[in-house]
Design a protein that fits this description.
Ald_DH_CS_GLU, aldehyde dehydrogenase (NAD+) activity, 2 domains, alpha/beta, Aldehyde Dehydrogenase, Chain A, domain 2, 394 residues, Aldehyde Dehydrogenase, Chain A, domain 1, binds nicotinamide-adenine-dinucleotide, 5-stranded parallel β-sheet
């Protein structure tokens, strides 16, 4: 571990990664690595938590490949100096921002999209001229092993190193000094990583989780289409997606239509018995299975799904009603295929509800009224807003 850090740091000091030719060659090599080994990644992810091949291709491999293409397309522009406006005192000078790499980056990945969450930060690190230590999540261990086998076969062996292992390995790494840390994972572990980074005053990106609400109102002309989109976002990766709609806020009338549509759509997605479907992931491990089933059994009533099977870490796509805001399921990120519905009487009530919690990572507004969208945009704060205006579609 320490040897890898020293080698990567020395490579950076020797300026190995700074030139554009090196960066482009490494980006192309990483593209080749993902492209040529699609089957290996598909198998690893299938073994980790039965991720369907189509989801691996779309949400993992293509994601990384597109990121690489985008960086290659813009790399010259990103590396150019950025000329800035000048005050009278320096009017005769040339003033510009010179772009330089940080140095040695530590990338700590999460397990839920273990290829793209580990490799996309690497793409950025390479394009910006950094060396990197890559620490995939031990929870998706087949994918971690695949990355550890493949990366050294394609990328420069001095500049980029994959280190596998559990929390202890990450903690050992975090004792070392890095020039940048990119962490994806839970808020809880994010705090530990932030503390470790602060000791060395290391700049850091924290890509964390949280509860992402979805508000839907009765102006939506075709609730079935809205429900299909909602369920796609909720059920891809069996709900183990940081930006999955975590819960729904709507009126009792909209709730009734959503439930009717959901029963039909879930059959359409996964057949009569979702457990037999090759298109539904499993919960990643026993610990998360037990955590989610505890949430499922701690309040609310399952009106769709509700079945579980511990032998297979299976949880059926489930909709819960009669959920109280104080129920445990409303007090932590669900990260599973369970969708609680909370009834609200108005959009103002929905906004108040959202503002009482932590800022959402994503906030989804399904409505046909621009005014409603504007109200949510102006009165709430979240990592991103995804607004669906339906009038243009129907
Ligand atoms: P996690 O926090 O358990 O683990 C993330 C990483 O931290 C892993 O590599 C793990 O080895 C390491 N780690 C675990 N325990 C540690 C410890 N005690 N000390 C040091 N390192 C430790 O997260 P996870 O379960 O892998 O991922 C799920 C979480 O990630 C969810 O909250 C999800 O919302 C979030 N997430 C966020 C994004 C985003 O882009 N914002 C994307 C995906 C996932």
């Amino acid at each position: 571990m320490f040897q890898a850090i020293t080698r990567a740091r020395m490579a950076f000091i020797r300026n190995t990664t700074k030139g554009i030719d090196f960066r482009v060659s490494q980006l192309n090599a990483l593209y080749k690595c993902v492209d040529e080994n699609a089957d290996a990644f598909i198998n690893a992810l299938r073994n980790d938590f039965r991720k369907p091949p189509m989801e691996t291709v779309i949400a993992e491999l293509d994601f990384v490949k597109n990121d690489i293409k985008d960086q290659l397309m813009h790399i010259k522009e990103y590396m150019k100096p950025e000329y800035v406006s000048k005050s009278l005192a320096v009017m005769m000078d040339t003033a510009y921002i010179h772009k330089e790499p940080f140095g040695l980056a530590l990338i700590i990945g999460a397990w839920n999209y273990p290829v793209q969450l580990t490799l996309c930060p690497l793409v950025g690190a390479i394009a910006a001229g950094n060396c990197a230590i890559i620490k995939p999540s031990e929870i998706a261990d087949n994918t971690a092993t695949t990355l550890a086998e493949l990366i050294p076969r394609y990328l420069d062996n001095e500049c980029y190193h994959v280190i596998t292992g559990g929390p202890e390995a990450t903690q050992e790494l975090l004792k070392e000094r890095f020039d940048y840390i990119f962490f994806t994972g839970s808020t809880q572990i994010g705090r530990l990583v932030n503390e470790a980074a602060a000791k060395h005053l290391t700049p850091i990106t924290l890509e964390l989780g949280g509860k992402s609400p979805l508000y839907i109102d009765d102006s939506v002309p075709n609730l079935e289409i809205a429900c299909r989109r909602l369920l796609w976002g909720k059920l891809i990766n069996a709900g183990q997606t940081c930006v999955a709609p975590d819960y729904v806020l709507c009126s009792p009338k909209v709730q009734k239509s959503l439930i009717e549509s959901a029963q039909k759509i879930i059959k359409e997605f996964y057949g009569e018995d979702p457990k037999k479907s090759p298109d539904l992931c499993r919960i990643v491990n026993k610990r998360h299975f037990e955590r989610i089933t505890k949430l499922l059994n701690s309040g609310g009533k399952a009106v769709v799904g509700g079945q579980t099977d511990p032998s297979d870490n299976y949880i059926a796509p489930t909709i819960l009603v009669d959920v109280s805001p104080n129920d445990p399921i409303m007090n932590e990120e669900i990260f599973g295929p369970i969708l609680p519905i909370i009834n609200v009487g108005s959009e103002d009530e929905a906004i108040d509800f959202i503002k009482k919690g932590e800022k959402p990572l994503s906030l989804y507004i399904f409505t046909n009224r621009q005014k409603t969208v504007d109200k949510f945009v102006n009165q709430t704060s979240s990592g991103e807003h995804c607004n669906q205006i339906y009038s243009s579609l129907h």
